[in-house]
Design brief:
It is a single chain. The chain is mainly alpha-helical. The chain has helices at about 10-15, 20-25, 25-45, 55-60, 70-80, 80-90, 105-140, 160-185, 200-205, 210-225, 240-270, 295-305, 310-315, 330-355, 360-375, 375-385, 390-410, 415-425, 435, 445-465, and strands at about 145-150, 155-160, 270-275, 355-360. The chain has a two-stranded antiparallel ribbon with strand order 1-2. The protein has a two-stranded antiparallel sheet with strand order 3-4. α8 (about 160-185) runs antiparallel to α11 and α11 runs parallel beside α14 (about 330-355).
């Protein structure tokens, strides 16, 4: 049972998945440090330094044997987290103790492990992102032909379809996917660079043999499962990378934010709803309410995420020369919370997009309330074909539209424009045919075809590439 007298981060207790929490947990970080130390020592041995197989074996045997209490005690003593763990590792691997961290600076383990953690975090988010895309694809195709009011300026505009609108959400995520993929494809480790990035300590260890120093970096990185490193660094990897990552995470949040706002508005209109569980309570006072809790939570988390890149921008721009330590405490908070936040956002997005409820009769009612106004030009054209005067028809239908508008706004009644037209002799050529003329499916343009084409040409190739990762469901914990 957690100590309820202490503050706990709600990203951990309420929102983010255990998978992402573990990805940024100390257990993974410190295990990576040991993995890095092993890769370094083993590579140094292979290139001729006086390190024995027995020492490497001992390091590997105790790779997971981390005494956290002892490491914390050492850190209180030396005020240095990396050296505290060097000491703790040396206690359980005394034979290898003299060669742990040989030639390295703290950022060898700190920066490389941080990059590896972020890489794994990007993979988690990438998987969840394509799963959201898959669910929106299915939704878009299911409703590609269902006419609905389009809105510009939040005012009724020409018709679109429920599915076509979903492709707008889907396209936002596609752009985020492309940016996320770009980060992954151009990913680099810091590598083995030494204290100020010059590799001077390793050049000394290898008696000035430049080729061995270069080979050392290649081998260490390969043992960790990566290929690319930054060509040059100071003591740290470029902090601009953090900013680049957070910008992409912010873009995902921006896309989710728009989706959540659209769903909240649609739920207010009673056209589309997020899932609402049988025992869920919308309001402590108003028992009838069905608040869009998931979408509101998504928007709240998105707002926090969108605010974070500026923090990383300041950190990147205030790194003096080869490095300063004023980035450390800040990045411990910002980087992890950014990933946890987007993880939580995508968990909700998965849950909502998979369980959206569409009320087609309400949608049709709203369409029918506005469609007579939208159909006036079509009605005029039909009458002109039958020999009518376009200008006279236009003026008459304008007056009838004003009358119908007053009937709606001032009297609170239904739109009766079609009834007024049916009674007007000037529009006799369309009498009895108005139902056909104002058929909503004639006002949606190529929306169904655009939806199908967009999904086939741009979304399906992405989903095919990640087909083995599809089928994930979103869970809302509380």
């Amino acid at each position: 049972m957690p100590d309820k007298t202490l503050y706990e981060n709600p990203l951990n207790t309420r929102y983010a998945s255990r998978e992402m929490q573990e990805n940024f947990g100390d257990e993974k970080r410190f295990r990576l440090w040991r993995k890095l130390w092993i890769a370094l020592a083993e590579s140094e041995m292979e290139l001729g330094l006086p390190i024995t197989e027995a020492q490497i074996k001992e390091l590997k045997t105790h790779e997971s044997d981390i005494d956290y209490a002892k490491a914390e005690a050492y850190e209180r003593e030396v005020r240095h987290d990396v050296m505290a763990h060097v000491k703790a590792y040396g206690d359980v691997a005394p034979l290898a103790k003299p060669i742990i961290h040989l030639g390295a600076t703290s950022c060898f383990v700190d920066c490389n492990s941080e990059l590896m953690i972020m890489y794994d975090g990007l993979q988690i988010l990438l998987r969840k992102l394509v799963n959201v895309m898959d669910k929106l694809k299915k939704f878009a195709l299911a409703y590609k032909g269902l006419p609905t009011l389009g809105f510009t300026h939040l005012q009724p505009a020409q018709l679109t379809t429920v599915g076509k609108r979903a492709t707008l959400w889907l396209q936002d995520l596609m752009l985020d996917y492309e940016n996320l993929q770009n980060l992954v494809e151009h990913f680099r480790l810091r590598g083995v660079k030494g204290t100020t990035g010059t590799q001077a300590s390793f050049l000394e260890l290898f008696d000035g043999n430049t080729e061995k120093v270069k080979e050392l970096e290649k081998r260490v990185v390969a043992k960790l499962g990566y290929k690319n490193v930054y060509g040059v660094t100071g003591q740290t990897y470029p902090r601009k990378f953090d900013y680049n990552v957070l910008c992409v995470l912010s873009q995902i949040a921006q896309s989710a934010y728009k989706f959540s706002n659209d769903i909240r508005i649609l739920q207010n209109m009673k056209e589309v709803e997020e899932p609402f569980e049988k025992s869920q309570i919308g309001s402590s006072a108003m028992a009838y309410k069905r608040n869009p809790m998931r979408s509101e939570r998504m928007g709240s988390l998105c707002r926090f995420m969108v605010s974070l890149p500026m923090n990383s921008a300041i950190t990147a721009s205030t790194q003096w020369f080869e490095r300063t330590l004023d980035d450390s405490a800040n990045r411990r908070i910002v980087n992890a919370q950014a990933f946890l936040t987007v993880d939580a956002i995508l968990n909700i997005y998965l849950n909502v997009s998979e369980n959206l409820v569409v009320y087609d009769k309400v949608i049709a009612k709203h369409v029918n309330a506005e469609l007579p106004f939208m159909a006036t030009e079509n009605i005029i054209m039909e009458c002109v074909k039958a020999g009518g005067d376009r200008q006279e028809l236009h003026e008459k239908i304008r007056r009838l539209s004003m009358e119908a508008g007053n009937n709606v706004k001032r009297e609170g009644k239904d739109n009766n424009l079609l009834e007024l037209i049916e009674k007007e002799e000037l529009f006799k050529p369309v009498h009895g045919r108005l139902g056909d003329i104002v058929d909503s499916e004639k006002f949606i343009g190529r929306a169904p075809e655009q939806t199908a084409e967009f999904i086939k040409n741009e979304i399906d190739p992405i989903l095919e590439k990640h087909k083995d990762s599809l089928g994930e469901q979103g869970k809302v914990n509380v």
